[in-house]
Write the structure tokens for this entry.
Amino acid sequence: MKANFLIVIAILMLFISGVYAYIGYSGNEALSSHYMTDQKWSDKVCMGCHLNTKAEVNSSFHVRQDLAEWSSLMKQGVLFSDMDKETWLSVYGPLHPGGGDLEEYGADVDCMICHEQNGLYDYEARVASISSGNIAGAKEAAIEEASKKAQKDPLYVASYALNVLTPLPIVTEIHDKVNAGPTKEQCGNTCHQNEAATSAVTWMAANASEYDVHSNVNCVECHETDEHQVGRRIPLDSDHEHYVEVKSCDSEGCHAGISHGGIVDAHLETIECETCHIPMLPGGNLTGVAPVSSFSWENGVLEETYHGSDFTPTLAWSSGIYNEKLPVMASKNEEGVKLNTFNLISGVWWDEGLDQEVLNNPDNSSSLGDPIPPSAVRAADSNGDGKVTSSEIRSYDGNLDSQPDYPKAVRRHVDLLYQVSHNIAGQDVGLADPLICADCHSGSASGTLHIDWELLGYDMDPAGTTAPAQEISVTIPGQKPVEVEREPAL
């Protein structure tokens, strides 16, 4: 009788442990001790606390790589789906958390890349392992030192020995010191460091607080997570079933209810907050990655130019991002467009000319078209002078069938818009103060406007020739009234 009672209690503890852990899950769950050191998922052990977690991660867009087709165009000269496996592994392998396309190489999801808390995860060791071809061993290489440290910790050893029947508060207390929610450094200094090249983000800079008013905000506070789906800007043509939108500026707990006065608030129907709050972007080698201003594959090799000094972002119309369309400027008359902030990167590449939209308007069409691989462009340089002409690429016969491979080839020169969402300027932070009326409307003191009205489809400033005189004020709900100094009564 007593033995049966103990068995029932043990089963009940196991059930409560798993249910309690899953109910409290917010995307920042403590990882199982066994997975923490062995780097192997165990349905017998891990699932006791992390019911459904493995399935959640495997279905997440980070693992499934719901990336835009044009995302590899700048650095590789081809569309994402046209990359060969070897190139894909070298470019995206180190940025991939495992599972998905890496699963066939023996690389399961690596939870530590996001959750290790003591700075012991060796991301460079992971990159080196993948680059050397040892993809299956990459996560073990990265966590080797952290595992040694954890396995020597007395509290951890006790938890490990007690297995999943350890009361959850004790497990959490132990694991949160080793594994907890992703930190800003884990997101920015590993997988997302390359975004500095396209949008001049400064989260890797030692003095990031000088450039972004949100530098001390953890990424997951805005990029909220639900069932391992990290909040993000959702492509308008994405077919991903489960996603979470990144929080908007006026979300509750952020800037809900803040007013800049009737005139400015009315602008928010057609412009995003970033339009005025990202007045300048940092150029140069601030983060070790210089922002790109142009790229060209015209001669089959990548040629790039960079912003060597601080620069003004481009304000342009946009209705959102697409996976299956190039990020080109929208028209002010398109439905749902708003003014937003971008790093405009001018790109040049050769296209096969099979798409009628590309043939009709190669430099402004949003069609992905059919980019010609850089290797074929290089081979088309028949006189070896390093310059590929239209006649050379159109007469190139790479397969030696006596027929040109790209008889309709056309050179595209497209201004691509890479959206900027960070480096938010406040009253005391940023490369420049947030924009005021005169910065966009005709009365700028310097005579140079921040905005190009012609680029936006206007013949002239729609506000006329006189800029509004008033400064832009800020009213915060519940803020303390301004105190007025008065002379004493007596």
In short: The longest helix spans residues 2-23. Residues 16-36 have pLDDT under 50 and may be disordered. The first strand starts at residue 225 and ends at 226. The radius of gyration is 27 Å.
